[in-house]
Write a structure and sequence with these properties.
binds D-xylitol-5-phosphate; binds zinc ion; 214 residues; alpha/beta; single chain
Length: 214
């Protein structure tokens, strides 16, 4: 079963509650946290996640595009995140392992994320304890970018690693997912699709979510 995770990066932040309710037929709510250092953009932080938690029961899939995310795991867990994704490029391996340990202590689901330059095999040290791997199909930082087709190979390789070491682990794809690219990423092995512009740019949002699910 394919899950859809609308990204509120493409929502109207002045009307965030309305735009969250508009995607209630989806599976996860994807929340993009950017620090202006790991990526060249700044979005939202802990207080906003806390407010979002008060206005929806949706599963909050929080994508941390920040340097040294280990510093903020407890804070985002306390704000109500259900799952946290940390980028493997954002700190030393020991600190990534520490971030995952803290997620476990806080009772949130654990994910690691890969920028396009990062090889699928980079997940190997962590795979057995992960709930999800997030493969980026654009350079993180902005919504509305073109899908990087070369990343289909990374998705296939991550799927093979998941099947071998932890079949329950989910595989999320983020960036440029739209009706034309969704079947490609699903074919390559993804089961959770993030979509920002393809959902919020659609005239009929529930129909767009259903179409992406296939
Ligand atoms: C980009 C973010 C994505 C973004 C996707 O750095 O991680 O979640 O919102 O937007 P679209 O679906 O428009 O590519
Ligand atoms: Zn994201």
């Amino acid at each position: 079963m394919i899950k859809i995770a609308p990204s509120i990066l493409s929502a109207d932040f002045v009307n965030l509650e309305r735009d969250i309710k508009a995607v209630s037929s989806a599976d996860y709510l994807h929340v993009d946290v950017m620090d202006g250092a790991f990526v060249p953009n700044i979005t939202i932080g802990v207080p906003v996640v806390k407010s979002i938690r008060k206005c929806t029961d949706m599963f909050l899939d929080v994508h941390l595009m920040m340097e040294k995310p280990v510093r903020y795991i407890e804070a985002f867990a306390g704000a109500g995140a259900d799952m946290l994704s940390v980028h493997l490029e954002a700190d030393h391996p020991t600190r990534i392992a520490e971030a995952l340990r803290i997620m476990g202590d806080c009772g949130v689901k654990k994910a690691v994320a890969l920028r396009p330059i990062t090889k699928a095999e980079a997940v190997l040290p962590y795979i057995e304890e992960l709930d999800m791997v997030l493969v980026m199909t654009v350079e993180p930082g902005f919504g509305g970018q073109a899908f990087i087709e070369d990343q289909l190979d990374t998705i296939r390789r991550v799927r093979a690693i998941i099947e071998k070491y932890n079949p329950a682990c989910e595989l999320e794809v983020d960036g440029g997912v739209a009706p034309n690219t969704a079947p490609l990423v699903v074919g390559a092995g993804a089961n959770v699709l993030v979509a920002g512009s393809a959902v919020y740019g659609a005239a009929d949002i529930p129909a767009a979510i259903a179409a992406l699910r296939g």
